[in-house]
């Protein structure tokens, strides 16, 4: 069983922020910033590629609920990042789907993800031909 499944089963202790029948939110043990939270489905799905529509919709409703709650409850909150790593190449270390909710503060020392400008090397129209999907 994966470590988050063990937490969900109560075999490993955690600090529970929110729980319903399908979703659990806990404080991340690292506390990258104060209040750093993980929101996860209670069922074991590994990545975004494995989630179904129903759990995706519900999970992200919970993410939004927690985010808005933190905005009103956490003193000195200046911003908030949402992050989800899928597969090891993208930084996923626990193979049970989870969204990081990361409150931000004035001097929180969290290193921001830097986006390099590669626009000169990309053919946008060719790219769209490959990846565009119908709404
Ligand atoms: P990721 O690298 O996106 O897969 O994130 C995994 C996160 O799980 C890391 O931020 C860890 O700090 C966190 N983590 C690992 N074990 C535990 C645990 N027992 N309780 C709470 N958070 C944990
Ligand atoms: Zn699991």
CATH architecture: 2-Layer Sandwich
State mean pLDDT (0 to 100 scale).
98
Strands in their spatial order, largest beta sheet: 1-2-3-5-4
- Strand content is 15-25%
- Rg, Cα atoms, Å: 17 Å
Counting DSSP H or I runs of 4 or more residues, the number of helices is: 3
CATH T-level topology: HIT family, subunit A
- Uncertain segments are none
Terminal-residue CA separation: 37 Å
CATH superfamily: HIT-like
Largest sheet geometry: 5 strands, antiparallel
Characterize the structure shown.
This protein has 135 residues and is of the alpha+beta class. It has one domain (3-110): HIT family, subunit A (2-Layer Sandwich), CATH 3.30.428.10. Helix content is 27%, strand content 19%. It is built from 3 helices and 5 strands. It has helices at residues 3-9, 53-73, 124-131; strands at residues 16-19, 23-27, 37-41, 79-83, 99-104. Strands 1-2-3-5-4 form a 5-stranded antiparallel β-sheet, with helices on one face. The longest helix is centred in the middle third of the chain and has 21 residues, at 53-73. It is globular and about 50 Å long. The protein binds adenosine monophosphate (AMP) and zinc ion (ZN). The site of zinc ion (ZN) has 5 residues, from α1. Zinc ion is lined by residues 2, 4-5, 44, 96.
């Amino acid at each position: 069983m994966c470590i988050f499944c063990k937490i969900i089963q109560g075999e490993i202790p955690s600090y529970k922020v929110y729980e319903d029948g399908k979703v659990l939110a806990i404080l991340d043990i690292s506390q990258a910033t104060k209040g750093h939270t993980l929101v996860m489905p209670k069922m074991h799905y590994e990545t975004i590629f494995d989630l179904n529509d129903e759990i995706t919709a519900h999970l992200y409703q919970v993410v939004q609920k927690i985010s808005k709650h933190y905005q009103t409850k956490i003193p000195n909150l200046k911003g908030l990042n949402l992050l989800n790593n899928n597969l090891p190449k993208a930084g996923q270390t626990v193979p049970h789907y989870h969204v990081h909710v990361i409150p931000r503060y004035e001097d929180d020392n969290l290193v921001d993800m830097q986006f390099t400008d590669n626009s000169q090397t990309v053919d946008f129209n060719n790219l769209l031909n490959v990846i565009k999907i119908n709404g």
